[in-house]
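INFO worker-7 received task bundle
INFO bundle size: 2
INFO processing item 0
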Amino acid sequence: MSNLTVQPSRPAPAARPGSAPARTGRSARRRRGKEPAPQFRGVVSPHTLKSPRGRVIYWIVLVAVVVGFTVAFVFPLYWMVTGALRSPEDLAQMPPSFFPESLDFEVYAEAWDQLNLGRFLGNTLLYAGGALLFTLAIDVTAAYALSKLRPVLGNLVLGLMLATLMIPPMVILLPAYLTVKDLPIFGWDLLNTPWAIWLPAAANGFYIFLLKRFFDSIPRELLEAAQIDGASATRILWSIVLPVSRPIIGVVSILSVVTVWKDFVWPLLVLPDSENMSISVGIASLSAQMPQNVLIAALVIASLPAIIVFFVFQRSIMAGLTAGSLKG
């Protein structure tokens, strides 16, 4: 048996007196030199903003841009509201006055009675409510299937849905009208019925994309735990996915209602009967017989529901649109 000699290990060289211990990684880089601070580039350099003249110019430009865009968006609303309170002579005055000479609030009651806005509002509310229910029933289930059930050719189906967003609405107006006029397979004529509004409103690729993006952010472990407990796909959708997805469902609901409320061309084609007209089509059909201030008052009444919905739920809309965009 051969003798094995073990070489003694050399001790580590002792540090010189007064020298600092060796550093690695970030500490070593800091020792060699300070890390450069992150640079943020913009239209105005930080050096310019530090000078008094640069700050003054910056704030002048910022305030001018904000005020200009605010006036551009708010002035049409102001002109619509005050135009209803003016007399026909005041509206025909050239150049027009910025402030009305007299305020006549009775014009709103006159517009309500003469244009039969109660019936038109009721019809529009029926169309918007039905479109909301069909949109949630069809788009939520489609987005859930594409996101969590992963069917065969699911990506292809999603791509075709998103491709419809690139087609101008006026291009598919005639095919959609012919489809509603003679529904394939069944042969039903859906003109002058709420189905002509409900079914096209439910097939929306943008809503499906928003819902799918949110469903993708839901942890898959949560759904797998429910599957282990014996829950079916329908049960998981109803008890887990829908309660978690309230923000994006609220956004889709608001957008679908507002879209049906303000639509004009499609209801004009599929609802020619005066008893079934939406409020936008009804006001347009009677506009030639009404004074201009009465017509503007009717437009104000028709716009109020959509404006109120937007201002009340604007935080929910922005929160729902950004929800699910970041993971982790």
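INFO item 0 finished
INFO processing item 1
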Amino acid sequence: MTKNSNSLTRLALQKFKKNIWGVFSFWVIVIIGFISVFAYVLVPDNSKNANQMHLSIHSKSPGFQVQILEMPNQIKDESTWLSKLFFGTDDVTTEIPISSYYIKNEQLNYTEYADDGLIGQEKSINLSVFPNSEVESYINNRTFIFGTDKYGRDYLSRILIGARISFFIGFVAVFISLLVGLFLGSLAGYYGGKIDAFIMWIINITWSIPTLLLVIAITLALGKGFWQVFIAVGLTMWVEVARVVRGQIIGAKQLQYVTAARALGFTDFRIITKHILPNIMAPLIVISAANFAAAILIESGLSFLGIGAQPPMASWGAMIKDHYNYIILGKPYLALIPGICIMVLVMAFMLIGNALRDALDVKN
């Protein structure tokens, strides 16, 4: 039995490897997952939520370059290296975009950056403010690869950190939906009768409520926030899992191996968990991949409506909300970049779901 199981797994893996789009989507998901976990190591602005604002250089186009003066700060960042790795550093440095500077009479004289051909305000600061008077090390040329948002924040950093919410909400939502869906679907399919009728009544009521409306209701009940959205999305995606599990178990419990397990005196719990569920995992894997994509879209919609992840937390949906009006103001990339990111991630999960469906189909 074990050898047969291993051979079937190997065969499914070989079929999956032959699917070019499936393999490509797998690596896209792996790369985005890596970026989500180690975002603060990769981003130019590693402050918490990449929230370093420079209002004088707001809404700049991709590739914009400017000189940045970093003012020394006496406040020390006491975050641990682990906290910096996963949550960023405390924003303790004041950064000033400048257009020019010169040193005279033990003072640094600089001109603040000004837009639209204007001349910025000239200011001066004593060199003693800088440790060992090493001014040059505090002035650097910075390139904003994706430009800046309407608050002057580095857009590339916001995009990379925003991948976290869209990526991890898929895992949390699918995990919650599998827990609830497997439990209720197994009870309904295996026992039938009044239990089945009652659970199907709950499923039909939940199914009849628009998903976004149900998520909004749960979110308002739990409150606005990061984890509340994750839980709310997960609690609305279990219905399809429960229906599929119920249907699969109704068909599987009539098969001979289930009858044999009953004759051997195995408990219902063991029959369901050890014998039936392992044999119906193929459709569940496909549904989970589709639910990943659906969860990402729902979270993006919630963030766009303002009840998802709250500012200053970076979220692709919230970034579209903040900049969708820039589409008609000549800077559509501010809304298109996060939109394309959502599209790529959703498409990757849909393609890998299709590839898994084909690989696990024993008829092909």
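INFO item 1 finished
INFO post-check item 1: The longest strand covers residues 94-104.
INFO post-check item 1: Residues 2-34+157-360 form a domain with the MetI-like fold fold (CATH 1.10.3720.10).
INFO worker-7 idle
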